[in-house]
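tool_call: predict_structure(chain=1)
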Amino acid sequence: MSEPVLSVRGLDVAFTGSGRRVPAVRGIDFDVHANEVLGIVGESGSGKSVTSLAVAGLLPATARVSGSIRLAGVEVATADRETLRRLRGNDLGMIFQDPTTTLNPVLQVGRQVIEGQVAHGRIAAGAAAAARAVELLREVDIPDPAARAIQFPHQFSGGMRQRVVIAMAMAGKPRLIIADEPTTALDVTVQAQVLSVLARRQAETGAAVILITHDLGVIAEVAHRVAVMYGGRIVETGTVAEIFARPRHPYTIGLLRSLPRIDGAEERLVPISGQPPAPASIPAGCAFHPRCPVGRDRPECATRMPELSLDASGHGSACHFPGEARPARAEPAPRAAATAAATGSQATAAALLRVEGLRVHFPIRAGILRRQVGTVRAVDGVDLELRAGETLGLVGESGCGKTTTARAIMGLVRATEGRVSFDGRDVTNLPRNEMRRVRRNMQYVFQDPYASLNPVRSVGDIVAEPLRIHGVFEEMGGERRVAELFELVGLSRTMMERFPSEFSGGQRQRIGIARALALQPRLLILDEPVAALDVSIQAQVINLLQDLQRELGLAYLFVAHDLSVVRHISDRVAVMYLGRIVEEGPKAELYGHPAHPYTRSLLSAVPVPDPATRATRRRIVLQGDIPSPARPPSGCAFHPRCFRASEICARERPAFAPRPGSALRGACHHPIQPGDAA
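tool_result:
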């Protein structure tokens, strides 16, 4: 095998800014070769991003780095600033997680794409640089690149901004690309576009790639080899086929068992117990042993750190008892009340929540007099029904109107037209005092558990707040009720005096759920409740929600862009596009035989954590971005991106109607029939 583009040996990174040494990376070794994609996975705090910054020489002055990092023949760990500058300009490209913070908001995109090449003297400023910028934008599928080159980042969608960052990283044809969570904040369809562009450009240049992500499905579809990190160390490494088919380390097995799958059986998720350790408090011995089903009670695991031992194929794990690591046996997924009684009286029961013709339009104002010059049709005629004990998943790309729909139902956004009925009562645009009384039975759980919790109040006070607002604190048991809520969501009542900053992301989301349950509601509106969580913590919260639904008979409106999570937790699913529902029906039928081309595209774009499907799985990569709700297309809003569109689609809006011989309803002139290729 040829010499690696990157060779890392004994890398150790610690931070000293707090006055004591905090280890972040603890003695790791790996190589990356040309034309190879190495995927690095692990939970937050495992050392993934610190490793990538060390390789690029971008760590702050408080970092202490030891070991060897050889990139293109240069020792990065001891290189001076000028050497690192030349290395980053010629041999290394970085793709960061958030393109908004990567791009300068006051510089034209074309100038930013080529700026590095001009700074390193690889191309002269002026007409040649401008032409090269347009060429680079064209190579990453930016439409109308000449016009886009003179625009600014705020005029681009999130997916287009990430493609611009890829163009910047690949501009000088570097030998190594480091992509740090490049698709985390993107919709599944945009993620597919970005990964397609990255794979094509990597193949054209022959670059080595380090792909850092928490999405095991992306790793299965893109990577050649995998390194699994925990507590600052690589605990397992091998080819992508070996890691997914025959994982050896209990932590790797735990990650795979925690993952809701779009192609798997409906089993209860098996989360990893506990929380990942903070770098400042890594346990002695094997860092994973407090959470490990194999080594939790074994003295050897608690006192001696296992070494990473590789076999002849390069597959190895750092575990004292690798032969005992076995996947946990999964239980059947708990069935929601509505699912269990789908053929009985529950299926025909009156809807707890009914939404009819809901529209939410926002005026666009401009000029000194703030005259209205247009309208954003955020929600443009939505009909939904939700029964007691049922979960309705609401999915679609960013900007489709999911969250606005949820907030309008809750009364947090004023409806322009339509009707929202809860338990038979019209609650559309009620006066504030009356809507407050309705909210005793209808509560909202937000996406960001930290932003939704008051940082200067104890979590006990936060959970008690709804009881005090509604004047029922003493009536419902006071502090005893709050303590019961903590225990209901799996937290100790001893935590009630702590503040939100003292909790992990998963624990904060549990606190948000406890607050939502305080008034014993009948409906929870869950807006991306697990989107910001690591896969193992996500599994804990999903299991909690299913348990609470079974015990309390709750109805859920579950808003999400992760179709694997929605499949796992929902009874029915509604697919939204540009303010309208385009397809809706029972989960099994919608996932098994989707009729709308948009639904088929969404499902085909979901990464599957099975490398064996790479060659056989057909992916539909949508072209272009979702149109602006201020300027929706005529006819069917999806027709500019649809692979089945015809002339009637551009002229006439399809009716939302039942599909013959199916439980699905949809709005499409050319629905896909079972057995059709697409």
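agent: The first strand starts at residue 6 and ends at 15. Proceeding to next step.
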